[in-house]
From TrEMBL:
It holds the Pfam family DUF2400. This is TIGR02757 family protein. NCBIfam families: TIGR02757 family protein. It comes from the Bacteria. Residues 1-21 are annotated as: Disordered.
Length: 278
């Protein structure tokens, strides 16, 4: 395997928020970040759809759609997200402004992504439409529930997700934080929208990266167990918060800093955790 292990870019140095604590794991995580957290390692990932949209009003809609469908085989995810965005055209925000329930029901009839059908997509998008119409943007809707004094975005997730469900039943596309879900996909969406580096496009001001939660799924849970960041056996919100706290020991201002690079190790055949001595 050949990866770039050269000096960090100037903007990477400027944004670095790593704890000066000298530890072997910290050194290895930083080496992984510098090598893998790059645009050329993104494919295959639903995140790549966000790069197509310069307007934040479009990008946040694309982000919520892409993150909501981010489960199952990655090829199926990319295919499903691509189908939805092809229907929504060059500006998903403009499409959604003009669409009503009947339009969405017709345009997504027959859509299928594992357990999700066209009705789930319709109700998700109607929830998004209602939030934007009421608050001006998804960011503004989230900020209604966010309190900067909270240790993480966890308390804000419940209100935001409930609003997404207000216009129907998007099913499992929207998590239920009150039931202890790790909320992997909504936390993935927040990582994309809040952080700004070579991979995450950002755009949502007012939410510090320090408040983000690691998007915990089975793969990341396995990595966290391997790194000794948790001993919990379930992929719950409690586990996600514990894993986030573990990463915060090394990057307190940006605990999800290593999420993208670590998850590449289970997605790409040309990368292995042993390549970085982890």
């Amino acid at each position: 395997m050949s990866v770039n292990t050269g000096a960090e870019d100037a903007d990477d140095i400027q944004n670095m928020s790593v704890n000066p604590e000298n530890s072997e794991l910290s050194t290895k995580l930083e080496a992984l970040y510098r090598s893998i957290n790059r645009r050329n390692f993104v494919h295959p990932d639903p995140l790549e759809f966000l790069y197509r949209y310069e307007s934040l009003r479009d990008r946040e809609i694309v982000g919520i759609v892409a993150a909501s469908l981010a489960y199952g085989r990655v090829t199926q995810i990319l295919n499903s997200v691509g189908k939805i965005l092809s229907v929504m055209g060059p500006s998903p925000a403009t499409f959604l402004e003009k669409a009503d329930t009947g339009t969405l029901d017709h345009r997504f009839r027959g859509f299928k992504h594992r357990f999700a059908g066209g009705a789930h997509i319709r109700d998700l998008l109607m929830g998004v439409k209602a939030m934007i119409r009421h608050d001006g943007s998804l960011r503004q809707s989230f900020m209604k529930h966010f309190n900067a004094s909270d240790p993480s975005v966890a308390p804000a997730l419940d209100g935001f997700c409930r609003e997404l469900c207000a216009m129907g039943d998007p099913g499992h596309l929207v998590p239920l934080p009150g039931r202890g879900s790790a909320c992997k996909r909504i936390n993935l969406f927040l990582r994309w929208m809040v952080r700004t580096d070579d991979v995450d496009p950002g755009g949502w001001a007012g939410i510090p990266p320090s408040s983000l939660i690691v998007p915990l799924d089975v793969h990341m849970h396995r990595i966290a167990l391997h790194l000794g960041l948790t001993q919990r056996k379930s992929c719950s919100m409690a586990t996600a918060l514990e894993v986030t706290a573990g990463f915060a020991r090394y990057a307190p201002a940006d605990p999800v800093r290593y999420d993208f690079a670590l998850t590449r190790l289970g997605i790409r055949d040309d990368l292995s955790i042993t390549d970085f001595g982890l």
